[in-house]
Amino acid sequence: MELIFFDESGDSKFKNYFGLCMAVVNSSHYSSVKRGFHSVLEKYGWPKNQEFKGSHIFSSNRGPQGVSTDQRVDMAGEILDLTSSRKNSKFRFFYYRNMESSDHKVTYLHGLQKALNKGIKRKKGSGHKEIVFLSYDSRSDVSVSDVRDIAIPVISKKRLVLCEELVMADSNYHTVGILLADIVAYLASRIDTISNDEGLFEQIPEEEREKNGKLRKLRASTKLIEKVKKIGWETI
Question: Least crowded by CB within 10 Å, which of 29, 92, 105, 126?
Answer without folding.
Answer: 126
